[in-house]
Amino acid sequence: MATTTTPPSHDDLRELLGAYALDALLPSERVALKAHLATCPACREELAELRRAVEALPYLADERHPPDELRDRIGAAVAAEPRGATGTAAGGPISLAEARRRRQPVWWALATAALLLVSLGLAGWNVALQRQLSAMTPRTVALTATDAGQGARGAVTVMPKEQVVLLNVSDLPPLPANMVYEVWMIHPDGTPVPGGVFTGQTARHAMAADPASVATVAITAEPGPTGLPAPSGQVMVAASL
Amino acid sequence: MTDASDADLIAAVAAGRQEALMALYDRHGGMAYGLAYRVLGDAGTAEEAVQDAFLQVWRRAASFDLARGSAVRSWLLTIVHHRAIDLLRKRSARSTPTPLEDVAELLSVPSAWPEVEATLLRERVRTAIGALPTEQRQAIELAYFDGLSHREIAERTGDPIGTVKGRLRLGLRKLSTMLAEPGGA
After folding, report:
1. Tens of pLDDT along A129-156?
2. Secondary structure of A165-176 in the HEC alphabet?
């Protein structure tokens, strides 16, 4: 194809509108057309018309019943979002895949594990269902910082129905070299169970657990990268459920 | 929540009410999943696309401008489609789609179908696209469902790029005209 030295005309650009509406243009063409649209009401009007057709295209696909687990996964993913995330799109949305790559791979692994446990643990539900209804609703408990964790704050949310314990924490004290934050789920009898590790001073962390079996959630600093099977460091923050 | 309109639900989502998002999912999840499945052709990735899209809806609900008259369903399906094409292009190592921000701009266009029943709309759209010349319909479907650029469509069909551009534009224009015709509704 011969390259042209003259800028594309209105007619040339107008010819691109269909491909633009379908996101089928090359990036350079898209930029040129966008600039043209800013100054051409006629093209904007035609684009609006073409867009109406594009908006109808989803109806060419057959409806399909999604697997039931998908609903649960969406619910858990949304519940894991930090509070107030809605409406603060200023930072720009990132795709789930990007978010997964960028931060907290551990979180996602645990969340996935949690969901797996939820599906595997369905049999145990009958027991849970016999409990009071109020015991099934999610609730949030604030974290208390100790001297070792001065300045840290956050909350623990328990989701009995999903069998998930969510931890949201920010401003933890900086970690010494080669250390990680380790989360502990302490049973009513005082036994601490490792709940995973992370390194960010501000983090979201999900754990698969029956909240009824967790009396306290606490965070300590432990040797990295995997933490220890039992806590050795001082508790920085804790919440009694 | 089931009696609430989509607009009520999206407002509740913007206020941080998760049950409203789930109500939207219960209402439109089948279409969302069907669309993602049509694009991706496998259940696992289609589920990923739908999950990502609903998370986007959750995060962006406040930016949805009801005053502009866009339909919630169209907005939601645009996000699902965008995510599905993104995953499709990544899988085939092709270019990523235009950022959703740019696509979302197009959504400020007031929708023609805010309140039309989905099943009715489905019939109308199918009839209309069936009435297009085969080459136009094929070009539109390759762009929309396979995420191909005009150049890739031209390679696929063996036609000049200019011809493909023309078909996309003409096909969409005809489709839009047919769908706007009274009586069809």
Report:
1. 444 444 667 788 888 888 888 889 888 8
2. EEEEEECCCCCC
Which residues from B are below 8 Å from A74, CB to CB? 21-22, 25, 50-51, 54-55
For residue A111, name the pLDDT band (cuts at 50, 70, 90): low
Q: Which ipTM was obtained for this model? A: 0.89
**B33 Cβ contact partners less than 8 Å away, ≥ 6 residues apart:** A63, A64, A65, A66, A70, B46, B47, B50
Interface contact B101-A92, CB threshold 8 A: yes
> What count of residues does chain B have?
185
Helix (H, G, I), strand (E, B) or coil at A236: strand
Beta carbons of A87 and B175 less than 8 Å apart: no
Alpha-carbon separation of residue B134 from B22, B24, B141, B152, B167 (angstroms): 39, 35, 10, 18, 10
Give the pTM: 0.60
User: What is the C-alpha end-to-end distance of chain A, expressed in Å?
Assistant: 69
Rounded Cα–Cα distance for residues A158 and B150 (Å): 50
Q: Are A63 and B77 in contact (CB under 8 A)?
A: no
